[in-house]
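Quick illustration, no need to memorize.
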Amino acid sequence: MSTDKNLSPFNFKYNREVKTYEVDFQHVVHNAIYFYYFEEARIEYLKNLGFSIKGEITISNSQFVVVHNQADYHEPARLGDMLEILVRMSKIGRSSFTYEMEIVREDGRHICSGLTTVVTIDRENGHPKPIPESLRKSVENFEGVALNAAAD
């Protein structure tokens, strides 16, 4: 499959090389590794917005818990490939937000697509809580669009 998808709406890009410990005996990236790539890129996305990530992701006494992960595999990535991971936050609800990610190899081939939904919880009681306004504003400024709160 080629890069027929429109990847232009992604404002954040993270580059990395496929390492030896990420591949199977055929030198193909193991399917579970893509979730590590997605997480790595999501953390870099938040750091790019100015949030400090030290040990755990916390903003305004909130923690963030992944409640849904999805990946669609289009072509294999192989040992030594240079990958560009594109990230955007596509939806912000009251207490959850969703990231979209695309992985593209340096030759432009579309490797993998992913979605991750994260819920904001209170550090003290573990219950869902509203997304910190600082995060919402930072994302909307960076993405250049208002991501309206929806019921979740």
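Helices lie at 33-48, 133-143.
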